[in-house]
Specification:
The protein has 523 residues and is mostly beta strands. It is 1% helix and 41% strand. The two termini are 34 Å apart. The N terminus is likely disordered.
């Protein structure tokens, strides 16, 4: 086999199925000029004068891949963030992601890098690592880690905020479509909100960067048609809450897709509304669902901006549990080792303080509260307080003998760490209670083991082994802790973040609002 340069000609359509053209951007924004090659056979085709780079892909029978992190917070419990964290935050490399425009109300904003939730996904191909990162330049990117360089880019109609999900389609007709990235974006920079079709959720081939279908986020009573959530895929069935308030069960396979409303859409199996009529009035149409679904057995759990935490029975295809809080809820329902849910509560539409609920969904909603941890009110950038991001827990990589911990970063500027299976008690041994989001009902508080000021944050802290990593507008913090819950700050990176990191094989990967994607750790 020989490596050859190729030229795109109408007489060579088969080449388009092998790879996607892309021009990598280096960290200093400059474009590289080296010509890449692909392996075909011994045929030599001379390149044109200004050949753009072609990302090389091995032949299908030579590709071995492992999905290391394939959805937001890594698993169906939303509790896995990687296998190994570094001992420092040295910059190994940074790659400029670009910038783009979006509309917030009637105002045009220029945003750079990536933001909430913005967690990268990671796949290994033949031992080489690749990241999947959505960005504010409207593009989904496949990025080679070792180089680093952009392998391909796919352009959406607006900035990409949420994290995608990678699905292995074992029945794919072509190997190049074996891995699908299901990714959402904002509703479209040039799209009128009230048009019939806004395809803000799409399936992209991981190997080629080609679109395979797009889903219409249809018009509802919600004031958003964006898609921020990450789908949960169980075998060949996908579940996701869209920001239009529709919980959607669908078949992600392109072979079952069909043309509907003028676009090639996946097969919809069922839909359920995640709000009630009174919620539309009380929240002034802010009934969006930004959280990602999680799983306990045969049931899924999903928090909604309508103020509800819903339980869904997969066998009966129906909503069977509804815990009403009344606030806006953006964080995902995190499943603990004892099969409970940790729910982030924003300070909005409620009389009491925002904070974190621990709920037992095996009990009726009226009896489901295990504890509530309130945080302080603080008005910042339009938020009134509470917790926006999801809770991080140490279940997946907790060292032997360590406490079961939960960490969350609040709008009030503090990082909180609590024992999620232990109550706070006074000197007499009585359980300490505090008022819940309604400002009236008292609930037990969990035992707090660590609290430190880090600045306002909407990111999700991640535990990896005995390390805790948390990002925010005040920087990226790396802590180490021991079995007695003594925390020590090891390092800090001074730039600003909204996204959530991963930590794989001793490296941290995280995108910043400063425009860059960072690889951190020891070189």
């Amino acid at each position: 086999m020989k490596k050859i340069n190729i030229i795109f000609l109408a007489t060579l359509p088969f080449l388009f199925s092998l790879c996607k053209t892309a021009q990598p951007l280096t960290a200093d924004h400059s474009k590289t000029s080296d010509t890449m090659t692909v392996v075909i056979d011994s045929i030599v085709i001379p390149p044109p004068p200004d050949t753009v780079e072609i990302a090389a892909h091995p032949l299908p029978d030579s590709i071995k891949y492992v999905i290391r992190t394939g959805t937001f917070l890594g698993s169906e419990k939303r509790n896995y963030y990687g296998n190994k964290a570094p001992a420092n935050l040295d910059v190994v490399w940074k790659l400029y992601l670009g910038e783009g425009q979006t509309r917030v109300g009637k105002t045009i904003k220029d945003w750079a890098g990536a933001g909430w939730t913005g967690q990268p996904l990671l796949v290994e191909e033949n031992g080489q690592k690749y990241l999947i990162q959505g960005a504010y330049d409207h593009k989904l990117k496949k990025i080679a880690v070792d180089s680093p360089k952009i392998v391909w880019e796919y352009a959406f109609d607006d900035v990409i905020k949420g994290t995608g999900t990678i699905w292995e389609n074992k029945n794919a007709r072509f190997f190049k479509d074996r891995l699908l990235i299901l990714q959402g974006s904002r509703h479209g920079f040039n799209n009128d909100f009230y048009i019939d079709v806004i395809p803000s959720y799409r399936a992209i081939s991981y190997f080629t960067g080609k679109e395979l279908w797009r889903l219409n986020s249809r018009l509802t009573k919600s004031y958003s048609r964006d898609v921020d959530a990450s789908a949960l895929i169980i075998k060949d069935t996908a579940y996701i809450g869209l920001e239009n308030g529709v919980f959607t069960k669908f078949n992600p396979s392109p072979s079952r897709a069909d043309t509907v409303d003028g676009i090639f859409q996946p097969e919809i199996l069922s839909e359920h509304m995640l709000y009630e009529s009174k919620d539309v009035v009380n929240h002034k149409r802010n009934v969006v669902t930004e959280a990602s679904p999680s799983r306990i057995g045969k049931k899924l759990y999903l928090a909604s901006g309508s103020g509800h935490v819903y339980g869904y029975d997969m066998e009966r295809d129906t909503l069977i549990w509804d815990f009403f809080i009344g606030s806006d809820i953006d964080g995902s329902a995190i499943v603990t080792e004892d099969s409970c849910l940790l729910i982030s509560v924003e300070k909005q539409y409620i009389q009491g303080k925002g904070g974190i609920y621990k709920l037992d969904p095996a009990k009726p909603p009226a009896n489901a509260v295990v504890w509530y941890k309130p945080v302080e009110d603080k008005e910042t950038a339009g938020w009134e307080g509470g917790v926006i991001g999801s809770v991080g827990i140490n279940d997946a990589t907790r060292p032997e003998g360590f406490s079961k911990l939960a960490a969350f970063a609040a709008i009030d500027g503090y990082l909180y760490v609590v024992k999620y299976n232990s109550f706070s008690r006074n000197l007499k041994g009585d359980i300490i209670k505090s008022k819940g989001p309604d400002g009236q009902t008292f609930h037990p508080e969990p035992e707090e083991v660590f609290k430190v000021r880090i600045g306002t944050s909407i990111s999700t802290p991640i535990f990896v082994g005995n390390k805790l990593i948390v990002a925010g507008y005040g920087g990226l913090f790396l802590f180490e802790y021991d079995a007695r819950n003594n925390f020590k700050q090891l390092d800090k990176l001074n730039t600003y973040f909204e996204s959530t990191p991963i930590a794989v094989d001793g490296k941290i990967y995280i995108a910043s609002r400063d425009g860059y994607l960072y690889c951190l750790g020891s070189p």
